[in-house]
Amino acid sequence: MRAYEIQAGFGLDKLVQVERPDPTPGPMQVRVRVKATSLNSRDLMMVEGRYNPRQKLPLIPNSDAAGVVDAVGPGVTRVKPGDRVMSLFSQAWSAGEPTRAAQVSTLGGPLDGALADTVLLHEDGAVPTPAYLSDEEAATLPCAAVTAWSALVTHGALKAGDTVLLQGTGGVSIFALQIARLLGARIIITSSSDAKLARARTLGAHEGINYGTTPDWDKAARALTGGVGVDHVVEVGGAGTFEKSLRAVRPGGTVSVIGVLSGGAGTVPLTPILMQNLRVQGIFVGHRQSFDALNRAFALHTVRPVVDRVFEFSEARAAFEHLKRGAHFGKVVVRVG
Ligand SMILES: NC(=O)c1ccc[n+]([C@@H]2O[C@H](COP(=O)([O-])OP(=O)(O)OC[C@H]3O[C@@H](n4cnc5c(N)ncnc54)[C@H](OP(=O)(O)O)[C@@H]3O)[C@@H](O)[C@H]2O)c1
């Protein structure tokens, strides 16, 4: 099989293409011929050694795969050769609260991931691909879309008429926009780019705020709700945005803590959380049940993931560099098969 490995230390320049023997699926495992993989901010952090500097190497990065089942191990009943499937981020998390076992069953670290033409999955971690999606589109769902669904639906119970505040126009936020549209919520989105805000409006965002030219975007978001505050913030900015997110949300509202784009450590202002009765909900992607529910909703409404650009397998490093520049809108994909 062909794969990319983080091999001798971290850094994009250390990402090398290798040949490995084809793996044989063990009990309950399925072998998938990968057709496409998408890049997540986490994958870039993993390659650069910022996600887990103690990660054992070599490692095949990337959590997100879409492909075709090619062989199955003993005991497999959920899928068969020829089935189109996507990877589940945490291979051992089917439903309920995450367990320690689920937290360490994640693809692209510590388990070998999907920047390869072949990946082994647990049968419970091979999710049927909705027929209307191409492999490039399907490869965008496992991490970013499931995360947005977990935040807004599984934990957030967002409903028609609620107001949601989204940060930036990357993978998680654009899926959150599409899900909030399905649910009939009002969408306020921020971006560093007016052109991206205009594009977000064409997807159904109701209001856009440029966080570059409006550094007090929290106040601007509040003002748009008549001073009350939004019902839900999808917090992907991290240390640089968290405090403002607490100020943008209404009393009793929810902040879904998801991302660390501007850093993962900072002081947590406790007073607004308790005085405003806020719910600060950590999100760790999501379980199989959420992924299945997302697929049903997307298929029913034929929601098309927003693919910014598709790179060829030989251009994997360039794909990561593109993600790192932050010029993308939605998801960056690498075609594999
Ligand atoms: N907890 C989880 O389960 C989970 C799952 C998925 C992702 N994440 C995390 O969530 C974050 C987003 O992931 P992603 O895959 O959507 O990333 P992404 O596609 O790389 O998103 C990048 C975009 O975010 C926006 N952005 C960057 N810094 C910002 C800031 N300080 N304030 C507001 N927006 C900012 C920019 O949008 P504009 O160009 O429009 O300004 C940028 O283009 C990452 O930190 C990732 O690690 C966590």
TrEMBL record:
One Pfam short name: ADH_zinc_N
Bilayer-crossing regions: none
Single GO MF descriptor: oxidoreductase activity
Coiled-coil regions listed in the entry: none
Domain Enoyl reductase (ER) residues, every copy: 11-334
Matching InterPro entries: ADH-like_C (IPR013149), ADH-like_N (IPR013154), ER (IPR020843), GroES-like_sf (IPR011032), NAD(P)-bd_dom_sf (IPR036291), Zinc_ADH-like (IPR052711)
CDD domains: MDR7
Highest taxon in the source lineage: Bacteria
Protein name: Oxidoreductase, zinc-binding dehydrogenase family
